[in-house]
Amino acid sequence: MPPERRSRTRADRRAGAMPGKKARLGSGGTPRKAARSSQRTPQAGQTAAPSAVTAVAAAAAAEEESRLRQRNRLTLEDDKPAAERCLEQLVFGDVEDDEDALLRRLRGSRGHLHESSDDSEVEDEAKDSLPSQKKPVWVDEDDEDGEIVDMMNNRFRKDIMKNASESKLSKDKLQKRLKEEFQHAMGGVPDWAETGRKRRKSSDDESEEDEDDLLQRTGNFISTSTSLPRGILKMKNCRPANAERPTTARISSVQFHPGAQVVMVSGVDNAISLFQVDGKTNPKIQSIYLEKFPIFKACFSANGEELLATSMRSKVLYVYDMLAGKLIPVHQVRGLKEKIVKRFEVSPDGSFLLISGIAGFSHLLSMKTKELIGSMKINGRIGASTFSSDSKRIYTSSGNGEVYVWDVNSRKCINRFFDEGSLYGLSIATSKNGQYVACGSKSGVVNIYSQDSCLQQTNPKPIKAIMNLVTGVTSLAFNPTTEILAVASRKMKEAVRLVHLPSCTVFSNFPVFKKSAVSRVQTMDFSPRSGYFALGNEQGKALLYRLHHYSDF
């Protein structure tokens, strides 16, 4: 082969292209230089070409593999039931186009579980900081005014009223009041009711964090129980309730207003005084003076709108209208032939007035009209009388130690029983929850009965006999929560005890005998929510005590 053809053939083979006219130009001079430059250019092309071919081949192989996998999946899907295919789609998501998405999702969730606890806490804090609910742009006040709830039509709503002015509340205020009552009963907001609370990833982490919190703070780790503990009663001696109107006359009645933070004090000095209770100064609100009328007993009506008073030597019943500020004397009750009206009781529902007469007669009057409804008679003299908490029954203690139970509607005796060990009954009281009946006798014994046994048995056995007093029990009072029973005798100094229920044990820290400040107790009462305890003595002082276990008045 001639030299020119050999060089042309070699150059064409190296270039990997079809020979052009310049390639056939010869063997020397300028054509040789062109041939050398053409030899250097294809070397870069030779390096790029295999990589491009490899990429194209890999893409084709991946596409073929994906196509085969898709065909196999479709074949398997045809064999599966429709329910199974639906369940897989709900659990794993829609991965028809790309099954690798499922693998990436699983890897992502696994990596998320291995993230640090600090990052998760930061995210939780960021979520908690976000506003939970958007505020309304505009609120119609007329709609809010129309949503008024009557608190007097429901006996459960009556219990959460703080004063008489709250006879009607809006739905929002009622909801807040119910929330406050719930938190008070639970001792705070329970964990399950807290909003925005951080959620731990596991119980082990939660226990470890609780231990860390326990070691990083100090304080009282024993929370206050909702029920009153026995043994020691935490209380504080406050300034006397009638300190702004001092007197030396015997106190005959002390009672807290059922709806306002007010206490009433009356005595044989012919005066009835009202004081605002704050535990510090107890400022006087007003005093009512009844001429030649030494007060034997004074009492609020059930709704707190009226104040009733009787004297030791008169048959007149005074009624003071607290809203109008008017004093109304009731000189004669139609059908009532009693010469002197002294002892009386007001029913808890405010419907009836019970007057204890002579010769064993009890007279039931209408509280609204002050007219006689009917009379009941027992054997012997009447020692004391009281209504049940639901105002459906009347308990009368007689002078021979027998207790009569009357039905209010029919005014018939439904049961009678002997107070165990009693020869002469002086006082009787029923608990607010309808559970207990306490009978005080002349011997100083207080028997605590179950109300059910008093209604069904003719010889009931007392739950407990309190024998801490040695003189006649003249005063008995249950607190509104039925956790304390106060017993007292006016015959002896410091003769007063507070009994814990249901254990029926006496609190050891009251009264303080070394101070001898109580003297002879004439009357006593608890505030509507047991926050205060008051008692009046023969020295003209209305002693006031703050019970720390109860947060409200």
TrEMBL record:
Query: Where are the annotated segments for Disordered?
Result: 1-83, 108-146, 182-219
Arranged from A to Z, the UniProt key words for this protein are: Nucleus, Phosphoprotein, Repeat, rRNA processing, WD repeat
Query: Can you say where in the cell this protein is located?
Result: Nucleus, Nucleolus
- Gene Ontology terms: biological process: ribosomal small subunit biogenesis; rRNA processing
Primary location: nucleus
Which Pfam family is an annotated match for this chain, by its short name? WD40
Q: Name one GO cellular component term.
A: nuclear membrane
Bias-annotated ranges (Basic and acidic residues): 1-15, 64-83
Give the WD repeat ranges. Answer: 387-416
- Give the multimer and partner information: Part of the small subunit (SSU) processome, composed of more than 70 proteins and the RNA chaperone small nucleolar RNA (snoRNA) U3.
Q: Which family does it belong to?
A: Belongs to the WD repeat UTP18 family.
Under what name is this protein listed? U3 small nucleolar RNA-associated protein 18 homolog
Q: Gene that codes for this? A: Utp18
